[in-house]
UniProtKB/TrEMBL annotation:
InterPro entries: P-loop_NTPase, Shikimate/glucono_kinase, Shikimate_kinase/TSH1, Shikimate_kinase_CS. The lineage of its organism: Bacteria, Bacillati, Actinomycetota, Actinomycetes, Kitasatosporales. This is Shikimate kinase. GO terms for cellular component: cytosol. Its main location: cytoplasm. Keywords: Amino-acid biosynthesis, Aromatic amino acid biosynthesis, ATP-binding, Cytoplasm, Kinase, Magnesium, Metal-binding, Nucleotide-binding, Transferase. Gene3D superfamilies: P-loop containing nucleotide triphosphate hydrolases. The keyword Protein biosynthesis does not apply. Catalyzes the specific phosphorylation of the 3-hydroxyl group of shikimic acid using ATP as a cosubstrate. PANTHER family: SHIKIMATE KINASE, SHIKIMATE KINASE 1, CHLOROPLASTIC. It is an enzyme of class 2 (transferase). Its EC number is 2.7.1.71.
């Protein structure tokens, strides 16, 4: 039995989970782990290929298993993929954990992520898709989070500091 993650970062793609997570881990002298990276390593293929070849539902099942393993094993900073909170069983795995939601408004999301087609959910009309994505997900991020940190006007260092202060 381990002590579990020190902090779990959730939030939309581009909210800075990986950058902030790595900075925070360094600051805490703790390891960093990212469930997207765990899935890519285990599958030996990119996430965009898993979406295209097997569909989103299959990816969410792989993600649920990755979150279950990471939550059980990892004692440092953990980042989840932006859509992990869509799955009810995955949300359940986060109960009682120190979850931080990195929030970002739609304009900032379009500026940061824009037309990056490596992110499979934003292939066309990124502004409309961002709006719909955030409308569908915002309440789920809020539901699992203990702390919300707005990232819009902050550098990754400032976001890491805000989380550090909130812990
Ligand atoms: C997704 C976000 C991605 C990745 C996959 C799906 C999403 O993670 O898990 O492309 O549904 O928002 P990041 O948030 O780390 O980019």
């Amino acid at each position: 039995m381990t002590g579990g993650p020190l902090v779990v970062l959730v939030g939309p793609m581009g909210s800075g989970k990986s950058t902030v997570g790595a900075l925070l881990a360094e600051r805490l002298g703790a390891p960093y782990r990212d469930t997207d990276a765990d899935i890519v390593a285990a599958q030996g293929r990119e996430i965009s290929d898993i979406f295209v070849e097997d569909g989103e539902a299959h990816f969410r099942a792989l993600e649920r298993d990755a979150v279950r393993a990471a939550v059980a094993e990892h004692e440092g900073v953990l980042s989840l993929g932006g859509g992990a909170i869509l799955d009810a069983s995955t949300r359940e795995l986060l109960t009682g954990l120190p979850v931080v939601y990195l929030s970002m408004d739609v304009d900032e999301a379009v500026r940061r992520v824009g037309l990056n087609t490596a992110r499979p959910l934003l292939a066309v009309n990124p502004r409309r898709q961002w709006r719909e994505l955030m409308e569908a997900r915002r309440h789920l991020y809020t539901e699992v989070a203990r702390v919300v940190v707005a990232t819009d006007d902050r550098t990754p260092e400032e976001v890491a500091q805000a989380i550090f202060d909130a812990l």
